[in-house]
Amino acid sequence: MSERLLEVRDLKVSFATEEGVVQAVDGVSFELEAGEVLAVVGESGSGKSVTAMTLMGLTRGPNARFEGTARYKGTELVAASDEELQRVRGAEIAMIFQDPMTSLNPVHRIGDQIIEQIQAHEEISDSAARERTVELLDRVGIPRARERVDNYPFEFSGGMRQRVMIALALSCDPAVLIADEPTTALDVTIQAQILQRMRNLRDETGAAVILVTHDLGVVADIADRIAVMYAGRIVEQGKLDEIFYDPQHPYTWGLLGSIARVDRPRPARLPTIAGMPPSLAHRPEGCHFRPRCPHEFAECVKTPPLESRVPASPGHKDRCWLSVEDKRGEREIVPGEIGLEDKKGVGAAV
């Protein structure tokens, strides 16, 4: 059986602002096992990155409030001291940040930045740390790694900088790798290369991956399980084939329906989800997706629990008051229409 590395229970993160209290994360729960890829999907502002950064202790501040638990191999992360988090961060749980240009220090050579992280967690000589850095850069596909280890970030393209960020995150062999939008602003060819590198590294090291993204095309190509977030809550979660073959939440239908397809005639206009995401300081009562949902009815003013409603798939959970029969009759996405048999086409289409 796989080892459970991370267990998050009822995590809540709020920030006091001039507009009021922003509930960025509202009762998020999930587990992560060794070697597993969990994709956290949703629009900008849904709480994906805040959830990931909270696990690293990067959202702490005088205006932040936290509830719930996040246990990594039995160690509590939410209530851990800064010193305890410092030992875990980078060494046990590492993160690939969204923008490599602003995450890498522009006035330091990339090799020095990776060496600094290695030596922050291990007693190792400069020469040994440098040799490991060269190996890491070569491993993630940086050509002429021994020469380029002394280059500055501006001397690399966007895709190469992202590979440097992956090397930096893997420098201490973490058990959990958090990748926050690792393919954003990259063209589809480089996206495919980055995802292939992440798959290879996952297979080689056995590290678990939390992939934060809005791109279901990317998800279809790499994830084992998916958690769909909206307005701070997980609204649907399940295995990859459950989400793609039998999506249960109207928001998930909208995400799937907005994927461009290369195997279909080009539509005059891509389908979109009506309206705008709600303010997290003034969220709608009951189901947060209610104001944008074409299937809203009286029950939606109550908050739906995240629970399994498909008898054959007990691990497939969603927050929607519609019955399973009603959902399958209402949704426009036909089960299997965007399925695993053509998922590479989906990824290539985005």
Please describe what this structure looks like.
This protein has 350 residues and is of the alpha/beta class. The chain has 13 helices and twelve strands. The protein has helices at 48-55, 82-88, 100-103, 110-121, 126-139, 145-148, 158-169, 188-205, 216-220, 240-245, 250-257, 324-330, 343-349, and strands at residues 4-17, 20-33, 37-41, 64-72, 75-76, 93-96, 176-180, 208-213, 225-230, 233-239, 307-308, 317-318. The strands form two sheets. It has an eight-stranded mixed beta sheet with strand order 6-7-8-3-9-10-12-11. Strands 2-1-4-5 form a four-stranded antiparallel beta sheet, covered by helices on one side. Strand 9 (225-230) and strand 10 (233-239) form a beta hairpin. It is globular and about 65 Å long. Mean pLDDT is 88; it is low at 335-350.
Question: What number is the mean pLDDT?
Answer: 88
Count of helical regions: 13
Estimate percent helicity: 25-40%
The spatial strand order of the largest sheet comes to 6-7-8-3-9-10-12-11
The best one-word shape is globular
Structural classification: alpha/beta
List strands and helices in order, with pairings.
Layout (H helix, E strand, L loop, with lengths): L3 E14 L2 E14 L3 E5 L6 H8 L8 E9 L2 E2 L5 H7 L4 E4 L3 H4 L6 H12 L4 H14 L5 H4 L9 H12 L6 E5 L7 H18 L2 E6 L2 H5 L4 E6 L2 E7 H6 L4 H8 L49 E2 L8 E2 L5 H7 L12 H7 L1
Parallel strand pairs: 3-8, 3-9, 6-7, 7-8
Antiparallel strand pairs: 1-2, 1-4, 4-5, 9-10, 10-12, 11-12
Helix pairs in contact: 4-5, 5-7, 7-8
